[in-house]
Design brief:
This protein has 128 residues and is an alpha+beta fold. Helix content is 23%, strand content 27%. Strands 1, 2, 3, 4, 5, 6 and 7 form a 7-stranded mixed β-sheet that branches. A hairpin with a 2-residue loop joins strand 2 and strand 3 (28-31).
Length: 128
């Protein structure tokens, strides 16, 4: 039976709550929520476009730290503070997944109650 393992992500800040950045379960890669905080500076840009771009970079870094690639991402759920930020998600989406016949499933939800200046959070399911 597969056993859960905590993934160490270099230079990635932990969560405020006592949860890991990511775990694996067999070949599944299950990150905790991914936001747009810059892992090097520890700050979140007030610019929504920069936050969305950073969230995609964070997702890639976390998945790769767990032994996967963006090709193994099966589904992403986006939580946006305002649906107008979907245009920024679409830009980064097309940059990361340019092949229209090889993209993960996706869902976008409006989440008005994100904390601070957070405009995006992502829930990702991937495999190695």
């Amino acid at each position: 039976m597969a056993r859960r393992k905590v993934v160490e992500v270099k230079d990635h800040p932990g969560h405020r709550n006592p949860i890991p950045v990511c775990v694996t379960l067999g070949d599944l890669i299950l990150p905790s929520v991914i936001g747009g905080m810059n892992s090097k500076s520890g700050s979140t840009s007030p610019d929504p476009q920069k936050q969305v771009k950073q969230a995609f970079l964070n997702m890639k870094e976390i998945v790769e730290s767990a032994g996967g690639t963006t090709d193994g991402i099966g589904k992403i759920i986006f939580y946006l503070q305002d649906m107008k930020f979907r245009e920024f998600v679409n830009v980064e989406w097309l940059n990361m997944f340019p092949n229209e016949n090889d993209r993960p499933a996706r869902h976008v939800i409006k989440a008005e109650h994100l904390t601070g200046n957070t405009v995006i959070q992502m829930d990702v399911i991937a495999s190695r």
